[in-house]
Amino acid sequence: IEARGVTAIEFHHGLTAEELLAWSQFLIEDEDLVRSKSATGFLKEKKIEHITVRDVREVYNRTLDTISDILGEVRMGKIPSAEKAKAAVSALTEYMLNDRPALLALTLLKSYDNYLFNHSVNVSVLSLSLADALKVPSADIHTIGLAGLLHDIGKTMTPKAIILKPHQLTPEEWQVMRDHPVKGAEIVKKMQGVNELAVRLVYEHHINHDRKGYPVLEAGRQIHPYSKIITIADCYDAITTLRPYQKPFSPREAMRIMEALSGKVIDPVYFKEFIRVLGIYPVGSLVRLDSGEIAVVTETHSEAPLSPRIKIIIDNAGKRLGEPLELDLSSPQAGPSERNLIAPADPLLYDIDPSDFL
């Protein structure tokens, strides 16, 4: 099932024997053929109405392919079409509204070799999630997601030797790096079908809350509130990703670092909402319970930030479980089985990659 791009299946009331038989054909059909149509497209073609699938990874990977193609065209001196990017963001938006935890979990699956592609998609996902939480008008959410996807397009014009340099940049190299929002806005402005607001957000995403970032805004011009959304998403994903000059920080550590940047680089009001969206212990955090067990956070609850859904992977004797134990700490637990989250745990100490459990 996973080979066909499906992460979850739902069987609905009214399911017929004929639909179930057609579903069995899905399971033996050539997986590449199914992927070429998409799992959802296959079910539609077979007139299966009472079985739905969630193929969020397929949507994420398709968006990766889209941004890869766009950046490749820019490197060749072409101005890419915005249609594929807009379609990809529409699909991300749909999943963000209906299955946000699954989409946010995918942002933790990093690729060092394809950093710019992953980072672009992750910033789009995180920006969409924060914009929705801030109750941004639906007409603008798509624009924010598109700007998040294209925010670093200007880096295609920055020499790789600078982007991949493992040491501190020289003042001259830093100036070249600081030019990427301006170059990015120039490229996006030429893309047919992209509105002026998206161009502005790409231009402003590094200006920072205190206006001490780059490029320098002329006196009297305000930073657009939506630009601050992309700044937060960009900051969080960059901190949690391995780069030539930086080790990756855990989601919990990233929140602590960003707290120190609040009021300077990032908007403090928006950051509070970002914490609410991701949780005090975001998806992918390794945590210790008062029972002595170690678990991975798999889903957060904004109304109960200290009671996420978890997978326990190490018991109170320090033994790795053969099969993780899934629990929702926000659900009532009986007597002695009650567990509470008390502290973050270091994945390196336990030789654990939390993304393996998402």
3D structure, described in words:
The model has no long low-confidence stretch (mean pLDDT 90). Helices cover 49% and strands 10% of the residues. It is of the alpha+beta class and 358 residues long. It is built from 16 helices and seven strands.
Largest sheet: 5 strands, antiparallel
Give the ordered list of helices and strands: EHHHEHHHHHHHHHHHHEEEEEH
Percent of residues in beta strands: 5-15%
- Work out the helicity level: 40-55%
Short account of what is shown:
The protein is α+β, with helices and mostly antiparallel strands. The chain has helices at residues 17-28, 31-37, 39-45, 56-75, 83-98, 100-106, 115-133, 138-150, 160-163, 171-178, 180-190, 196-204, 225-239, 251-261, 268-278, 347-350; strands at 8-11, 51-54, 286-289, 294-299, 309-314, 320-328, 341-344.
